[in-house]
């Protein structure tokens, strides 16, 4: 039997990038094969964003990253959208 959460790596074409501008941080992650309801965003220690995605489909995988932002990041006002492949997260700067 397979474990409840597979320790399979994320799909090889998954990636994540962070861009900055004077008013916000923009996080863009390519998460092919993941469903919206299997993606979790959580703020940690006021400046770390924890991104987790799991796919329980055959050949699925696990994607997990922790992104540290500057002290000016307002993680209480995070906005996110997912189109089935690209996750876009906006973190306003104070």
UniProtKB/TrEMBL annotation:
Domain of life of the native organism: Eukaryota
Residue span(s) of domain SHSP: 3-94
Gene3D superfamilies per record: 2.60.40.790
Family assignment from sequence similarity: Belongs to the small heat shock protein (HSP20) family.
Name this polypeptide is given: SHSP domain-containing protein
Source species: Multifurca ochricompacta
